[in-house]
Amino acid sequence: MARVCQILILTLASWGSDQGQKDLFYKNLPRDFAMPRNDAERLLLREYGAVFVARGGATPPGQIVFEDEKSVTTFQSGLSTSSEKFGAVTASLQSAAMNALKEAQAEARHARLSIGPRSADSSRRGYAHTVDLWASRVNPGLAYWVRKGKVTKAEADRITKLSPSDQVPEILKLEQSHIFFAQSRDKSIIYSVAPPGTSQHLSMLALDVKQFDNARVRAILARHGWFQTVTSDLPHFTYLGVTENELPGLGLKKVENSGRVFWVPDI
Predict the structure, then answer these.
(1) Cα separation of 262 and 104, whole Å?
(2) Is beta strand 252-257 parallel, antiparallel or unpaired with respect to 260-265?
């Protein structure tokens, strides 16, 4: 009996510790953060939520989903931002993120390396851009599954006519039946594109890095507060504004994928 009690105490202590770690993430969210309202938003918070605990002068969004172009514009217009040219490409970020990126670039240059964006849309994005990316997966996906007999033409037409934000729970619901909308048709759409209004690029705290395959570049970025936070998106880095050993204290956990380290919400 004593042994059983000891095991129970240790189990409860372990559970309490794990629960406390999970609570850390929620405690570090912005004040008045709009908590998830449904399963779709809970999933998006787990997958993309690291940006909401950004520090180091960053201003994270206060909600999981921007509902329209106006809400994105209002948020971005209230930020301190900076734009810099990296070769032929201009990047626009929150000022704190840009300052850290320039410091990382200077360190890389000293090591005879370079750091810069992959393309013109690698930093700041608008709501319409996320809608276009979403449609580039949803519309061909619906046509594909209609041909396969998994979705009726009437159902596909109904979903197509919905607003982008209303499409999200419908597509995620279909994916629960293994009707997937990533380009490969074998995984969720969220591992291919972010749903409308949810991309970290809208917060101006994300950058798709051209040299993402270089481990030395990734280490330099990490020393300046830039980390990988979306396990399905290898070029994508997020400005979190702290050192790596501070990340667990924000409620983030380390996971590995494709030989890289990612920091994601521990929830």
Answers:
(1) 19
(2) antiparallel
N- to C-terminal Cα separation, the chain: 34
Residue 203 is given by DSSP the state G
Let me know: does 133 contact 140? Beta carbons within 8 Å: no
* H/E stretch holding 16: helix 2-27
Its sign, for the CA torsion 116, 118, 121, 122, is: negative
227 touches 221 (CB < 8 A): yes
88-133 confidence digits (pLDDT tens)? 999 999 999 999 999 999 999 999 999 999 999 999 999 999 999 9
254, β-bridge pairs: 263
What are the C-alpha distances in Å from 206 to residues 1, 134, 179? 54, 18, 29
CA 43 to chain CA centroid, Å, is 11
Closest by alpha carbon to 198, among 85, 46, 77? 46
- The residue length of the chain stands at 267
